């Protein structure tokens, strides 16, 4: 019985180790000149979008393009380039798309101000709708003589 328990436990441990190895992410083995360069390069790679994956940054993406771009960012930071130079290089090569936070320029005003404009428009429409509802007067309907007599009759019944 104990022999079977040991075999089951070892089989479970083996399968867990295989599963954990299957979901591991690739590790970049680039050696930086300093820890500051490594920190800066990782922050930059986190702020740049993978052109192939489109919804992942360079660190999270496993695509070959992201690996190449990560290496490029690492090398540029180690070469002494500042953040603006690295970002300028990436945007000149891949366009504004690689930036998760696009720059505030004339061509991106709609992107930055569009949500605010839509919110303001929605609030304006809501305000006008509520205002119209409040302004609309309740039309007083005139009732006929017969209806008035029936109403008086019902009201007198309630008084008794």
Describe the structure.
The chain crosses the membrane at residues 109-130. This is Formate-dependent nitrite reductase complex subunit. GO terms for molecular function: lyase activity. The protein is mainly α and 160 residues long. Among the domains are: 29-103, Helicase, Ruva Protein, domain 3; 104-138. The protein is built from 6 helices and no strands. It has helices spanning 2-22, 35-47, 64-78, 83-94, 109-135, 145-159. Helix 2 crosses helix 3.
Indicate the topology.
Elements: H1 2-22, H2 35-47, H3 64-78, H4 83-94, H5 109-135, H6 145-159
Count of helical segments?
6
CATH topology of the domain at 29-103: Helicase, Ruva Protein, domain 3
The unreliable regions are 21-27
Mean pLDDT: 80
Structural class: mainly alpha
Radius of gyration: 35 Å
Approximately how much helix is present in the residues? Answer: 55-70%
For the sheet with most strands, the description reads: none
CATH homologous superfamily of the domain at 29-103 - what is it? Cytochrome C biogenesis protein
Q: Which overall shape is indicated by the principal axes computed on the Cα atoms?
A: elongated
Keywords: Heme, Iron, Lyase, Membrane, Metal-binding, Signal, Transmembrane, Transmembrane helix
Transmembrane segments: 109-130
GO molecular function: lyase activity
Organism: Shewanella nanhaiensis
């Amino acid at each position: 019985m104990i022999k079977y328990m040991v075999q089951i436990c070892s089989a479970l441990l083996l399968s867990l180790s295989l599963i954990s190895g299957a979901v591991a992410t690739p590790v970049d083995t680039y050696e930086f000149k300093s820890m500051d360069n490594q920190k800066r390069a990782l922050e930059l790679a986190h702020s740049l979008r993978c052109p192939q994956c489109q919804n992942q940054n360079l660190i999270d993406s496993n695509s070959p393009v992201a690996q190449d771009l990560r290496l490029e960012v690492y090398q540029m930071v180690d070469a002494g380039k500042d953040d603006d130079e690295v970002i300028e290089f990436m945007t000149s090569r891949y366009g504004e798309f690689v930036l998760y936070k696009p720059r505030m320029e004339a061509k991106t005003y709609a992107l930055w101000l569009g949500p605010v404009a839509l919110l303001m428009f929605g609030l304006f429409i809501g305000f006008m709708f509520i205002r119209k509802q409040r302004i609309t007067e309740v039309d007083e309907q005139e009732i006929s003589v017969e209806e008035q007599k029936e109403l008086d009759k019902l009201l007198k019944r309630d008084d008794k």
